[in-house]
Design goal:
By secondary structure, the chain is of the alpha/beta class. The chain is about 45% helix and about 15% strand.
Length: about 350
């Protein structure tokens, strides 16, 4: 990537309740971000139901573990090779979404050497949201945590290969690992099934290893591993040490030490997607305001945007809670702001 080529992207989720909304979201993403300075991505429309949520999409990628959907949420059922009906539906829905993306991308992504991003739930967020076969979260069982992370690592290899086959003009494929629960996992604040207790803290070496398996698999498959989280207390030093080559963050919740980690990443030529817009809310600011905010943050770190190959402007979180007009305007705004940063 050329120095100083600031990009614009979105986190992943979009509003909607059915397949028509997904098709429209793909159209919006490719229309607003399909050309530089955009980094287009596979949108997620979780409003379509449990099979389309971040957890459902993550389980759809797993290799070697089956799941089913219970009233309390997703539950692993083992490695029998007989996934439940809803697990099969989650896999089918992901395949259908990739079919829809492939069809629209044939006309929109025609220039060779382009870039594209897909998202998958991370091992610790899945462990904190999915139950074991006998109840309570996977997070409660060391062996189950390990098995889940390794199944995700194997599954993501096949997922990367599938996406590459569908998008032959894309040279740079980014896989964003979504870890909104990582901060809660390492701080011991994930509630137990009863709601009266908290799961034990996962120590940092184990937390790092789980991420290493998944991020390493992404890199070995020829894609670029990023991690996104917008929760305060996310251990960004650990994330980068585990192999993330892109950090997608909410600038509002960063601690002082986080800024240092992000500066080191940018200076090393890695990517930082700086979340500078709310995922939903009132009126959006003007592009001059967003541009100035990004430039002030870089100035605080003593960094020159013209010398940074990995700077990305983005909303702070997904857009599922917004309406369609807000989502489209937000992507247009980060695209214009990224162009402004490029221009200095």
């Amino acid at each position: 990537m050329t120095a100083g080529r600031t990009l614009a992207t979105g986190v992943g989720s979009h509003p909607g309740e059915d397949q028509r909304w997904f098709d429209e979201a793909v159209k919006v993403v490719l229309g607003e971000l399909g050309e530089e300075p955009g980094l287009p991505y596979l949108p997620e429309v979780p409003g379509r139901g449990a099979t389309a949520t971040m957890t459902g999409r993550g389980l759809a990628v797993l290799d070697g573990l089956d799941a089913d959907l219970q009233p309390a949420g997703w539950r692993l059922t083992g490695s029998s090779g007989s996934p439940g009906l809803d697990h099969r539906r989650a896999r089918s829905r992901l395949a259908q979404d990739l079919d829809g993306l492939e069809e629209q991308a044939q006309a929109a992504l025609t220039s060779p050497g382009g870039a594209f991003k897909v998202q998958v739930a991370g091992p610790w967020t899945l462990a904190a949201t999915v139950e074991r076969p006998r109840g309570d979260k996977v997070l409660a069982d060391h062996g189950a945590r390990r098995e889940l992370a390794q199944a995700l690592a194997e599954g993501v290899r096949s997922h990367v290969a599938d996406v590459r086959c569908r998008l032959p003009s894309v040279d740079r494929l980014v896989v964003q690992v979504d870890e909104p629960a990582l901060a809660a996992v390492v701080s011991g604040s994930v509630p137990t099934a009863s709601g009266f207790g908290r799961h034990r803290t996962v120590d940092l070496p184990e937390a790092s290893q789980g991420l290493e398996w998944v991020l390493g698999a992404i890199a070995e498959a020829g894609a670029e591993p990023w991690v996104h989280a917008c929760a305060p207390g996310t251990p960004w030093g650990l994330v980068r040490g585990a192999g993330a080559r892109g950090l997608s963050v909410d600038v509002e919740v960063l601690a002082a030490a986080d800024h240092d980690v992000l500066a080191e990443a940018l200076e090393a030529g890695e990517s930082v997607a700086l979340g500078v817009l709310p995922g939903a809310g009132g009126a959006l600011p003007g592009d001059s305001h967003v541009t100035e905010r990004v430039l002030r943050w870089l100035d605080m770190l003593g960094l020159d945007p013209a010398e940074l190959p990995g700077l990305v402007v983005a909303p702070a979180c997904g857009l599922a809670g917004a309406d369609a007009s807000y989502a489209r305007a937000a992507l247009a705004l980060v695209r214009t702001s990224a162009a402004n940063v490029r221009a200095g």
